[in-house]
Design brief:
By secondary structure, the chain is α/β, with parallel strands linked by helices. Helix content is 40%, strand content 20%. The structure holds zinc ion.
Length: 298
């Protein structure tokens, strides 16, 4: 395997060179401060490819690069951003094509691949935790809920919009759909449900015996168990990592009990659940690993 460049793009752009599933140079952040992140939010789609290309050039530092992988939130299909909740101006934008052409102008001819950010993080965890030879799935608990899978396979994989309740009053998902996992667990959804309390206060309230909070904490865990059970029913048991800011609220013991109640067929049992911290570097490694594998397949 040669060197590849991994990129994570959301509120900030993080870039680094990766070799053999590990960082092979420093990580670069643009904008450097999170408080300046509105720079990207206000950027027209055409300028993003230029901006990414500029950051990639800077991180390259003269190295021979065989592939460039970019992870960003949203539905990505064949290099086109079909939906991007964080950066709505990129909806329909042919990012792969625009970035490959900007890089070629900068004398960097490499295979460019665009991935969903959760898929990039899944690949990063595979590279650093579980090995590149087994299926892993991740739940990325943030403002929305991401679902990532390694090995990368073309598909939609919008696991955050899995239906976990038939209650028609469950309408807090960012997509507008009823009964979705994200409508229960997403930070945005939690704030809409508890207009007077922050998520931290809700979980503290449950510990202190507040009934409304305790009921929600049960729903939170049952919803994650249900979406995990659905994934197990479709793809079989395996390793699930839970990561992102909301993962601090997850009680693995409780989640395991609910999952066990929902998954009874013996060939479907035996999944492992693990809460793990991830950062920009995890996604950078994963985006590069996925791009390198894609380049290797032709
Ligand atoms: Zn939804």
């Amino acid at each position: 395997m040669g060197k590849a460049i991994g990129v994570m793009a959301a509120h900030q752009i993080a870039v680094g060179v990766v070799e053999n599933g590990a960082p092979a140079g420093p990580m670069f952040l643009y904008p450097e401060s999170e408080s300046a992140a509105h720079v990207l939010e206000g950027m027209p789609a055409e300028n993003l490819a230029e901006c990414l290309s500029h950051q990639i050039k800077g991180a390259r530092q003269g190295a021979e690069i065989e592939a460039v992988g970019v992870g960003l939130p949203g539905i990505i299909h064949e290099g086109v951003v079909e939906e991007s909740p964080n950066l709505p101006q990129f909806k329909g934008f042919k990012l792969q094509e625009a970035l490959a052409s900007a890089l070629e102008t900068a004398q960097l001819r490499a295979r460019v691949c665009i991935f969903n950010d959760a898929d990039a993080i899944a690949a990063g965890l595979a590279a650093t935790q579980s090995g590149l030879d087994q299926l892993i799935r991740i739940w990325l608990l943030g403002h929305g809920i991401g679902y990532g899978r390694y090995p990368w396979t073309d598909g939609v994989w919008e696991g955050g919009h899995t239906v976990v309740t038939l209650d028609a009053n469950e309408r807090f998902c960012g997509c507008g759909g009823r009964g979705h996992l994200e409508g229960v667990m997403g930070q945005r959804a939690m704030r809409m449900r508890f207009l007077d309390m922050e998520p931290d206060e809700v979980f503290a309230g449950a510990k202190a015996g507040n009934r409304r909070c305790a009921e929600f904490v049960q729903l939170f865990h049952r919803a994650l168990a249900a979406a995990t059970a659905t994934s197990i029913a479709m793809e079989g048991p395996g390793k699930f990592f839970i990561t992102g800011p909301g993962s601090k609220f997850v009680d693995l013991g409780r989640l395991g009990i609910y999952l066990h109640e929902m998954v009874k067929l013996s060939p479907l049992q035996g999944s492992q659940l693990e809460v793990i911290g991830t950062d920009f570097e995890t996604g950078i490694i994963g985006a590069a690993v996925n791009a390198t594998r894609a380049a290797g397949k032709g």
